[in-house]
Amino acid sequence: MSVQVESVEPALNHSHRCDRCGSRAYVLAIIVWGKNDGELYFCAHHWNQHQEAIRPMLAALLDERHVLTRHIQDDGHFE
Ligand SMILES: [Zn+2]
C-alpha cells in the first residue's frame, strides 16, 4: 500500500517575474506602505538583496525558494 502525497502546485509560476531583473520570481512580498499596499515580486537573488528594506513594510510573504532546488533537480538547469 502506497501513500499518495498530493503535490501542491507553487503559487508562483513562469508568468511571475522579478520586478528588478525579469527573472522568474520565487518570492512574493505583500507590502503596506502608508495608505498604499502592493505586491512585489523577487527572484531569490533580489529578495536576498532587498529583504532587509522590505521586511518593515511586509504584510504577507510568499516564499517559494524551496522550489528552486526542485527545479534544478528536475531539469538539471537553473532557469
Ligand atoms: Zn531579480
What does this entry look like structurally?
The chain has 79 residues and is an alpha+beta fold. The protein has a domain at 27-75. Helices cover 27% and strands 25% of the residues. It has two helices and three strands; from the N terminus they run ββαβα. It has helices at residues 44-54, 66-75, and strands at 27-33, 36-42, 58-63. The radius of gyration is 15 Å and the shape is globular. The structure holds zinc ion.
Break the fold down into its secondary structure elements and pairings.
Elements: E1 27-33, E2 36-42, H1 44-54, E3 58-63, H2 66-75
Antiparallel strand pairs: 1-2, 1-3
Bound molecules: zinc ion.
Zinc ion binds at residues 18, 20-21, 23, 43, 45-46.
Quick description:
This protein is α+β, with helices and mostly antiparallel strands and 79 residues long.
- Residue stretches low in confidence (pLDDT < 50, at least 5 long) are none
Spatial arrangement of strands, main beta sheet: 2-1-3
Order of helices and strands: EEHEH
Regarding quaternary structure, what we see is: single chain
Strand element count: 3
End-to-end separation: 36 Å
What is the molecular shape?
globular
Structural class: alpha+beta
Q: The biggest beta sheet, please?
A: 3 strands, antiparallel
Mean pLDDT: 84
What bound compounds does this protein have? zinc ion
Alpha plus pi helix count: 2
Give the DSSP E fraction (strand runs of 2 or more residues).
Answer: 25-35%
Radius of gyration: 15 Å
- Fraction of residues in H or I helices: 25-40%
